[in-house]
């Protein structure tokens, strides 16, 4: 495993992972350490001391081994969340794996491994832990994960999100703590929530920072005054961290249940409705499409995005291309196309607009909207007519909407959107 | 003692629920929760206000015409007891409740919401606020009808709340959207109000910075004023501006009046004249605005007149004059009270005497002093407005 000290993991321009042997690092390392077996921790400590005293080669060796830790950490994140939040290790690496293995830097740019080394404190934790932690905290990476619906939560944000009674219930029921431990946790939390939360609001909210010594002292005073118990501030901090840790563990265990399958209740009633109100139906559909698409267009901030949206929409509905094909043509990823189009939202918005228009246009219909169930049935029926039954299948398997070409064909909504795009002059003349 | 737990230094990710809504600013939520006199009631209020903000943002994103009406916050009853905010969407009252980001199978609802008929809503919505992320995730909702049927499933806790199993809630928010836009309000019948209980509510509006009202020139068309204020923290389109002195109104051309769609309230002008006659001169550069608001089942018109006294000795002061009367031709309940507080301490409380048509109160303070107004009905219901501040830029 010692070869990790001169083997750098990096990304090729094409996005592939590559392991490069750095001869400078290898030469330095072999002269520095000639033992076949050493303890990583001791070795890293010595290398770090060398690095601090100005030996750039020692830093390079550490950066090599850290590049492996970065990859390990990304793999760990993917194992834990990748499937549910739809990303792979190749989505993460570009943010954090940027070390080119240069001994000296000619520009102001410093790779993450170098930055971590600057902050490294060997007395606090091992280099691997340190690297893992800062990889997870990396700004662009967390930004990407946030776009996938994941965020790093601090112990304090967890405590803020948990009421005393809930926290106590978890300690009692899940972790089988004794009643006196549960009561103690309740006191500590009451002090925390009485002191920390009002302060946090007064500060204007934002990131939840670790309680300050002053806050801990005030919490200790609170407990002393209310319960006659003396707890030193640092013990209080440890207890709070422990309670938060239990809550975190409990929250991680509970995986959200799978989404329930959509319930589809279809009735032939819509046919009568269509026969009676064909004209209104058509008019409302056209009006709704116009309104929803125009509204979407106003929300794009750049002209480029607006044009992309219109082109992608035309390719979906007129050319019946799949999102994968569109992504290839535009040089974007498929999920970017999905985000751009947001077809499920578009369909829902069109249906809602139709219903609001219909409500105005057809008084008899309006009478039907006096019951929740009837309204929902009605909405379902309109959806069915618009999307020719296929939508139910699509909803069951979102993956299919990327591939099923037949889906858009023959869909009334699809035809109408296509006609709309052809009719109107939304495209910018080149 | 501690089971196999990861190192506290480990940073774990948590999933944000779907659909997640990004909120632009939590400034109003912070300012309003900060205005609550009891610091122990602020955090849960902040969360309920964030959820409200999230719901409003979500509705705005739908491109569905939605009639905006004032929202309110139910004042919590104690530390750690969750609270609710109320939005009116089209004609539906939506009660918004903040819940934690865990997969607990119970939703906790403040007891007031369920026990007090006047707090009943057409829909009850539970969402998780992520203050650090400025995001809100919509989680569950149910209609009043479904809530009423849940009697056997819910449990009253020792914390003045009810726990409801998540199983009785719906999770597809497209359905809620559908109901809010297309359903006839008559489809959900709310219980009739009984004798009201003492319920404290806060009006959810941005804090008014009187200074930015005051700085405006009267000659500027008033709807420009409203537009300018749109980018200001003190903006509040709920307020209708009007000219406080008859003389000033005379100076405005009729075309300006038409352009601003100003609806001068004749009786208000008469009240102001009466106040002046009783010995309180209103400076020509005073600024005035009113808004109509519901307190319990009463629609009231609250007007405020603001002016600054830069030359006051030993230091400059500002003045807030508030007038409360019934909106339209209704009458106010006898014993209706208008309470003016400074830094969370009530300083003046006026009570409607038999035969009077309006209540008046005035405060004068230094530029760093802020005031809040509370309207309370003899039934015990009250509503408090966000603070009025005077902060020179």
Describe this entry's structure for a reader.
The complex is a heterodimer of chains A (430) and B (393). A two-stranded antiparallel sheet of chain A has the order 1-2. Helix content of chain A is 68%, strand content 3%. In chain A, helix 9 (164-174) packs antiparallel against helix 10 and helix 11 (213-227) packs across helix 12 (233-253). Chain A has 22 helices and three strands. Helices cover 22% and strands 32% of the residues of chain B. Chain B has helices at 27-35, 42-60, 111-115, 144-148, 173-182, 210-214, 222-229, 246-251, 254-259, 266-277, and strands at 13-15, 20-22, 71-74, 84-89, 92-98, 106-110, 123-130, 135-143, 155-156, 161-165, 200-204, 208-209, 240-242, 287-295, 298-309, 317-326, 337-342, 345-351, 358-366, 371-376, 382-384, 388-389. In chain B, helix 1 runs antiparallel to helix 2. Classes of the chains: A mainly alpha (430), B alpha+beta (393). Chains A and B meet through helix 3, helix 6, strand 3, helix 8 and helix 9 of A and strand 1, helix 1, helix 2 and helix 5 of B. Strand 3 of chain A pairs antiparallel with strand 1 of chain B.
Give structural attributes.
heterodimer; A: 3 strands; flat; B: alpha+beta; 11-stranded mixed β-sheet; 5-stranded antiparallel β-sheet; 10 helices; 22% helix
Could you provide a short overview of the structure?
The complex is a heterodimer of chains A (430) and B (393). With 430 residues, chain A is mainly α.
Percentage of residues in helical conformation of chain A: 55-70%
Query: Strand order, biggest sheet of chain A?
Result: 1-2
- Give the percentage of residues in beta strands of chain A: under 5%
Number of strand elements of chain B: 22
Largest interface: A-B, 79 and 64 residues
Number of extended strands of chain A: 3
């Amino acid at each position: 495993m010692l070869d990790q000290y001169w083997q750098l993991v990096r990304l090729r321009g094409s996005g592939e992972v590559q392991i490069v042997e750095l001869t400078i690092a290898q030469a330095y390392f072999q002269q520095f350490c000639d033992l076949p077996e050493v303890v990583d921790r001791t070795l890293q400590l010595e290398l770090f001391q060398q690095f601090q005293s100005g030996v750039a080669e020692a830093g390079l060796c550490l950066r090599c081994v850290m590049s492996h830790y970065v990859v390990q950490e990304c793999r760990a994140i993917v194992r834990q969340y990748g499937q549910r939040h739809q990303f792979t290790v190749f989505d993460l690496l570009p943010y954090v794996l940027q070390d080119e293995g240069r001994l000296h830097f000619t520009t102001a740019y410093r790779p993450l491994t170098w930055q971590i080394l600057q902050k490294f404190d060997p007395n606090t934790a091992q280099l691997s832990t340190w690297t893992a932690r800062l990889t997870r905290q990396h700004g662009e990476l967390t930004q990407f994960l946030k776009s996938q619906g994941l965020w790093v939560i601090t112990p304090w944000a967890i405590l803020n999100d948990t009421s005393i009674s809930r926290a106590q219930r978890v300690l009692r029921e899940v972790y089988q703590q004794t009643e006196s431990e549960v009561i103690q946790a309740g006191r500590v939390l009451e002090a925390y929530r009485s002191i920390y939360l009002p302060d946090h609001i007064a500060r204007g909210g934002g990131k939840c920072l670790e309680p300050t010594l002053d806050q801990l002292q005030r919490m200790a005073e609170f407990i002393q005054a209310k319960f006659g118990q003396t707890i030193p501030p640092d013990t209080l901090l440890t207890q709070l961290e422990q309670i938060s840790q239990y809550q975190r563990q409990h929250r991680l265990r509970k995986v959200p249940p799978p989404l329930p399958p959509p319930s589809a209740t279809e009735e032939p009633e819509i046919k009568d409705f269509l026969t009676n109100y064909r004209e209104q139906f058509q008019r409302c559909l056209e009006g709704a499409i116009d309104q929803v698409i125009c509204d979407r267009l106003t929300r794009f901030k750049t002209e480029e995005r607006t044009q992309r949206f219109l082109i992608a929409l035309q390719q979906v509905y007129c050319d019946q291309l799949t999102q994968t094909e569109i992504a290839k043509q535009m040089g974007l990823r498929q999920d970017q196309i999905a985000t751009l189009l947001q077809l499920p939202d578009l369909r829902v918005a069109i249906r809602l607009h139709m219903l609001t228009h219909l409500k105005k246009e057809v008084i008899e219909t309006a009478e039907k909207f006096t019951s929740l169930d009837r309204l929902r049935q009605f909405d379902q029926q309109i959806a069915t007519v618009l999307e020719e039954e296929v939508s139910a299948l699509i909803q069951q398997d979102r993956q299919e909407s990327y591939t099923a070409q037949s889906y858009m064909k023959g869909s009334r909504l699809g035809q109408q959107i296509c006609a709309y795009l052809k009719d109107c002059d939304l495209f910018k003349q080149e | 003692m501690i089971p196999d737990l990861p190192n506290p230094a480990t940073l774990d990710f948590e999933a944000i629920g779907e659909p997640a809504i990004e909120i632009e600013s939590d400034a109003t939520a912070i300012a309003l929760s900060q205005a609550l006199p009891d610091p122990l009631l602020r955090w849960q209020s902040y969360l309920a206000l964030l959820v409200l903000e999230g719901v409003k943002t979500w509705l705005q994103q739908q491109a569905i015409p939605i009639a905006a009406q004032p929202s309110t916050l139910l004042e919590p009853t104690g530390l750690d007891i969750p609270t609710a905010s109320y939005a009116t969407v089209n004609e539906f009252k939506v009660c918004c409740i903040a819940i934690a980001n865990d997969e607990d199978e119970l939703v906790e609802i403040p007891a007031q919401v369920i026990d007090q008929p006047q707090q009943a809503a057409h829909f009850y919505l539970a969402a998780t606020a992520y203050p650090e992320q400025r995001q809100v995730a919509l989680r569950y909702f149910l209609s009043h009808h479904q809530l009423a049927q849940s009697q056997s499933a819910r449990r009253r806790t020792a914390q003045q709340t009810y726990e409801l199993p998540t199983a009785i809630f719906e999770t597809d928010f497209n359905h809620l959207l559908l109901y809010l836009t297309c359903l006839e309000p008559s489809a959900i019948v709310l219980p009739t109000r009984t004798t009201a209980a003492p319920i404290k509510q806060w009006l959810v509006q941005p804090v008014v910075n009187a200074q930015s009202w005051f700085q405006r020139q009267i000659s500027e068309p008033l709807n420009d004023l409203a537009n300018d204020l749109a980018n200001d923290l003190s903006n509040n389109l709920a307020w209708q501006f009007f000219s406080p002195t008859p003389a000033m109104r005379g100076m405005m051309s009729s075309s300006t009046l038409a352009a601003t769609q100003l609806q001068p309230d004749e009786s208000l002008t008469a009240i102001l004249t009466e106040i002046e006659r009783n010995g309180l001169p209103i400076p020509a550069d005073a600024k005035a605005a009113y808004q109509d608001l519901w307190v319990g089942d009463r629609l009231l018109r609250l007007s405020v007149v603001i002016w600054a006294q830069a030359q006051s000795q030993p230091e400059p002061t500002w003045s807030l004059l508030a007038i409360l009367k019934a909106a339209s031709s209704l009458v106010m309940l006898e014993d209706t009270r208008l309470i003016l507080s400074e830094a969370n301490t009530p300083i003046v409380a006026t009570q409607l005497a038999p035969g009077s048509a309006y209540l008046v109160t005035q405060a004068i303070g230094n530029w760093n002093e802020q005031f809040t107004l509370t309207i309370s009905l003899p039934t015990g219901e009250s509503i408090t407005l966000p603070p009025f501040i005077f902060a020179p830029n």
